[in-house]
């Protein structure tokens, strides 16, 4: 099951990479005065490139859900950061630029850190569902943090707004991943259990809210300010929820904990570095001219 979950997670990462390249390019084309709220969505739904990205995102989410159905959040979510490994060459090819040696080094660091984390940590699954009272403290914390990020982002376009909205996106998508595991488990109980479960409706709200936040973040400022926070934030939030709410565990003792901590730091730094490089391949929103 671990091997299958890992393979599905990497396939999901590939689909998310294709979607990300398409959607970020579409968001970067939106003029400044239309880069927020409903006007942003109206512009994006008219873009064939955005729809191609949406199809890729949907396929990635379905495969991710399948991975979470057979594997732990602590295994699946870290592997999803390989999205940046796929996105970087795709964007390099589209923009005609070459991938530099620093990017290659960071890619090697990320792959090595992920492999060692899986081998040494041996992430184990917890429960697929937790009672609502077990979720409430985490849900309340996430809502507060999300509200703080959105309010602090303000309305002025720029790196600060993009980064804060990206952090909020990571919070929302981390919750999506954790709830997806619970909702996949509900599928076996039939449609009635699915539509009457609170997890289903909170999942839908988190998906819709996260999508709006992500597109707004991509259009709010430099992609190098938003992409690292989204890419790193989602697996961190999902992993924390997996441990705190669903009871997942990493098998380690003594010095192994120190090594695992180092590997996690290396994964975060490498992912952020590769995300900035990936974002640099696309035109920034500030270069977009006035609407015609």
From TrEMBL:
Sections of the chain in a coiled coil: none
Protein name per its UniProtKB record: DMT family transporter
Ribonucleoprotein is among the record's keywords: no
Membrane-spanning segments: 66-92, 104-122, 134-153, 162-180, 192-213, 225-245, 257-274
Span of the signal peptide: 1-22
Keywords: Membrane, Signal, Transmembrane, Transmembrane helix
Superkingdom field: Bacteria
């Amino acid at each position: 099951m671990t091997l299958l979950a890992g393979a599905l997670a990497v396939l999901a990462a590939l689909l998310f990479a294709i979607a990300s390249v398409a959607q970020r390019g579409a968001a970067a084309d939106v003029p400044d005065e239309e880069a927020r709220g409903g006007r942003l969505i109206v512009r994006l739904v008219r873009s064939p490139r955005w729809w191609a990205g949406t199809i890729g995102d949907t396929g990635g989410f379905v495969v991710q859900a399948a991975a979470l159905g057979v594997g732990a959040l602590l295994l699946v979510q870290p592997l999803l950061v390989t999205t940046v490994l796929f996105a970087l060459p795709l964007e390099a090819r589209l923009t005609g630029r070459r991938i530099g040696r620093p990017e290659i080094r960071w890619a090697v660091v990320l792959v090595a850190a992920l492999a060692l984390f899986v081998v040494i940590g041996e992430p184990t699954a917890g429960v697929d569902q937790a009672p609502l009272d077990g979720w409430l403290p985490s849900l309340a914390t996430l809502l507060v943090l999300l509200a703080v990020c959105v309010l602090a982002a303000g309305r002025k376009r720029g790196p600060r707004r993009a980064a804060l909205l990206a952090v909020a996106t990571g919070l929302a998508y981390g919750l999506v991943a954790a709830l997806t595991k619970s909702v996949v488990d509900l599928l076996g109980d039939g449609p009635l259990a699915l539509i009457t479960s609170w997890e289903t409706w909170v999942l839908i709200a988190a998906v819709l809210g996260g999508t709006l936040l992500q597109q707004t973040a991509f259009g709010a400022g430099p992609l190098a300010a938003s992409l690292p926070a989204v890419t790193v934030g989602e697996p961190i939030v999902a992993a924390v929820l997996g441990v705190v709410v669903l009871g997942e565990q990493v098998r380690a003792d003594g010095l192994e904990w120190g090594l695992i901590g180092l590997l996690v730091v290396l994964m975060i730094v490498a992912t952020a570095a590769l995300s900035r490089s990936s974002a640099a391949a696309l035109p920034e929103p500030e270069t977009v001219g006035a609407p015609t």
